[in-house]
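User: Show me a protein chain along with its predicted structure.
Assistant: Here is one chain, sequence first, then structure tokens.
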Amino acid sequence: MKVSTRGRYAIRALLCLGNEYGNGPISLKKISKLQEISVKYLENIMRLFVNEHIVSSVKGKSGGFELAMNPKKIKMGEVVRIAEGDTFTLCCLPENSDCPNKDMCASREMWVGLNDAIIEYLDSFTLQKLLDRYKYLAKKAGKTALPI
């Protein structure tokens, strides 16, 4: 599995929202400036997470985006799956794949195991766990903030 720019930027954007959790919405312009990601690109990313009810969109002058749930409940595996789509390491892994050899493939079990391990590993991280790491690194560096 290769995580694309969209997946990495989604994590960075959600970290920004998580860092301000409970303080109201953050404008895309502010996230764009902090993360050096274009507003247009962020609009597409945020739409994905609004559709999945992980992020809320707030209209108006002081509107923007905010987390729709506690960062402790947001698994990073889910974030990557939303941003990237299917996280299968090979196209033949989904049960509904059209591979004519999937029932006789000697290596399929290995690939399924690898895929499951990746998903399990990503799901072992929550957004809160990454935020805690961010705060620890900032404190260790003697700074109030670090690049996310």
